[in-house]
Amino acid sequence: MTAEPPDRPDPRARLDVLDRLDVLDRLDVLDRLADPDTGWSMGTVGAIAEFVRDADEPVELTPDSAVTARGGIRLTPPAGLRAVAYETPAGPHDHWNHAVALCLQSAAARRATRTVVTELGPDHAALRGTGLLFDLGLGTPTVDVCVRTTDPPLVDALRAGAGRSLFEPGSTLVGVVIQAGPHRVFETACGRVEVYAAIPPPDGRSPDGPHTHLLPHLLNPDRTHPPTAPVPTGWAPAAYCYPPHPTVDHLGRPVPFDRHRHDAFQELLTRYGDPSLTRAKATVIEALHAGREPPSGSGPAAPPVRAAVSVALRQLAVLDGPSDLLDRWRSAHGIDPDLLDPDGDRNGG
CA geometry: angle at 5 spanning 330 and 289, to 5°? Predict the structure, then answer.
């Protein structure tokens, strides 16, 4: 006998849209801001800023913000917030990522979507320091990707490039910005993330701690999240929370499996996840524990369901150890490389 996970998320499944304070309270957001093992990001596919910090790193905490010498975050979401918890496979082996997307209806999440470099004036909402704010004009639907600077040569270069695309043929502005390393400010309807660390060169590695990703080839004005994220139709993420992971630390380094962390996120999945994906995972786990063979055929079609099945199999490899039956399931439920988060990068996929 075989077990067949659902083909796609159930369109009838509905998560309650909770009052903003109810969501924030239930997610213990204030406690999570104070937790160095919890990470955060704001942005979209191809342009995202991440805030993390070390446990022994000095930090200024307020009820809605956390700021270090390397970066900061402020959370100020409006009413109508909806939390969506989910997991995605990461890399070719047994790793997976997990996240809680803080979503708003698409119209509420939409930003200015400027497509040319634009001077916005003094940044009166800065978490640290002062300076002039410039939108880089990436046209991203849910995040204004900006830089802040007081450096006169950079201000002159940005003003000279105002009204034109950052990636205009022949323009040297991208290189000037990288060389100057201004503060990056990613602002969404849920708040902002600021990053103060140096910008690595195009062939360099992002620094540990707060950092930004800008991948122009992935930018799409109609794309607000990865295909494996089960964000309901008509909604868009405005921020992401990354609760402590059971197999890696906040910098993605392997740690001994922590069952408490695993169970804690499974509780978030039960409360804020797509019920059809939770059922897909449960179906696979039950089938393997019962010794049943994988179903024949091509498997589920929808990327979020395929991701959920892949995560279930990876988690079973960690929880129960290897087996021939598990290998057969994994062979039957391979996942396309373009649906995988890059190994260790929870903002990919």
Answer: 60
Strand 47-51 relative to strand 211-214, pairing: antiparallel
- Nearest-angstrom CA–CA distance, 177 and 157: 9
Question: Running DSSP on this structure, what letter comes out for residue 152?
Answer: H
pLDDT of residue 203: 72
Which residue in this structure is represented by tokens 């990613």? 186
DSSP state, 108? H
Separation of first and last alpha carbons in the chain: 33
Distance of alpha carbon 60 from alpha carbon 69, whole angstroms? 9
Radius of gyration over alpha carbons of the chain, in Å? 21
CA distances to 87, 127, 195 from 311, rounded to whole Å, are: 7, 37, 31
Element (H, E) at 65: strand 65-67
Q: How far apart are CA 44 and CA 71, in angstroms?
A: 19
The answer to whether residue 10 scores a pLDDT higher than 50 is no
pLDDT of residue 82 exceeding 80: yes
**CB contact at 8 A, 46 and 348:** no
Residue type, 167: F
Please list the alpha-helical segments (H only) found in 79-127. Answer: 106-109
Higher pLDDT, 95 or 202: 95
Q: What is the pLDDT of residues 237-261, one digit of tens each?
A: 999 999 999 999 988 889 999 999 9
C-alpha closest to that of 348 among 137, 159, 90, 112 = 90
For tokens 């970066």, the residue is 71
Write the pLDDT tens digit of every residue in 15-25.
343 444 466 55
Do 85 and 79 meet the contact criterion of CB atoms below 8 Å apart? no
Q: Which helix (H) or strand (E) holds 186?
A: strand 183-188
pLDDT of residue 342: 55
Which residue's entry shows tokens 């991203």? 140
